[in-house]
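Example 3.2
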Amino acid sequence: MSMHLEKKLHLEEKLHFDPNQPCCGDPSIGDMFPDLLALEPNMINRGRIFSVTIMATGLGVQAREMTVDQAAWVACSRSPHFRSCYDLSLAKLALQQAIKG
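Structure, written as tokens:
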């Protein structure tokens, strides 16, 4: 699925970050990725930079897509706390993946 299709389908968004907080703030909360343990099907699950969309009907998954917000990546990469935020985001992602199995 492309961003064009997401817009065409008018999918709702679930934010997995606080838009009122700066990207890569201090202390870092590691919110670059959406929470894998709280993904909602048929919605855009939006982390600060990366988003996941899972299209599903019934018991089956028809499509999965990951997208990157390039503007958010550039903005976050300019933060002096970017590396620690990135590392924490990856650590949280790895732990969520381990829990999920």
